[in-house]
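Hi R.,

Quick one: here's the AraC family transcriptional regulator sequence you asked about.
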Amino acid sequence: MFDPSAARRQPFAEIIARFAREDGDHATAVPGLTVHRRSEQAVPSCGAYRPSFALIAQGAKKVMLGHETYIYGGSDYLLTSFDLPVTSQIVEASPESPYLGMVFEIDAAKIPPLLALLDRSAAETRDAAGAASEASPPEQRGMSVAALTPELEDAALRLLRLLDRPGDIPALLPLIEQELIFRLLTGPHAARLRQLSMAESQSHQIGRACAWLKEHYALPLRIEDLARRVSMSVSSLHHHFKAITAMSPMQYQKQLRLQEARRLMVEDMLDAGSAGHQVGYESPSQFSREYARQFGAPPLRDAGRTRRSLRGQRTGAPELLSEG
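And here's the predicted structure, written out as tokens:
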């Protein structure tokens, strides 16, 4: 049976397959653009997703944020608007039909000029119609899955095609990047990007809190100090932080600590005690308890299993930090 969406994704798959000839995560000549390939379904992996637009040309992926799960494939895109610690898993891939995906990081500094144009146009439309101005939308999750529109698909494909014309990148990348962000800002989940760019919004304050936690995850966390740092009350910080990240600040910090400890054991071959201490745990037993609860096995057993899985995939780089 003919699948029109699969036919539209074929050009994406062909380009990604050429620039990701082996399993792994591959940087490209286009700044902010990475392409990804996996030839088999993988064990769950951990990473910190940055603000980005992700599209799958072939296969499917599951991303877990807190207790929420997002599944997306070729007809969808994943929009991430905050730094978020997640667990992800390739759920559809084979040697004959490998998982092929692309990720393009979103530069928040590029959003305000486009918002100014959109808001000016919207204000003129409201004035002409005599309509009342709209209220600011409430905070939304910092991650969402939406249906890929033809306009967004077209911009993403032109972005990928720059890989075949590297001499065009300096002139055309700014234009394509602007259009891609414009399409996201006029899509169903635009409020996520809009809130991130508004300096006085609670979402922007939560973004600052996330950035601080990401940089200082190994330090003891006092919620009062974090709230003061981002100019919020403790209750407001808790409420808005959970609304956006699906977890509390303490849970967010714990995710970052455990993910980094796993990376240290898998990549740097640290023992459990050293890894736990390096990410901020004073009690080895607490570290082992929380690690097993997060990853389903004690630290050393999980690290060994993950190393074996990564060797079996023959990836060029571990997927622990993969977004694709």
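The first strand starts at residue 24 and ends at 27.

Cheers,
M.
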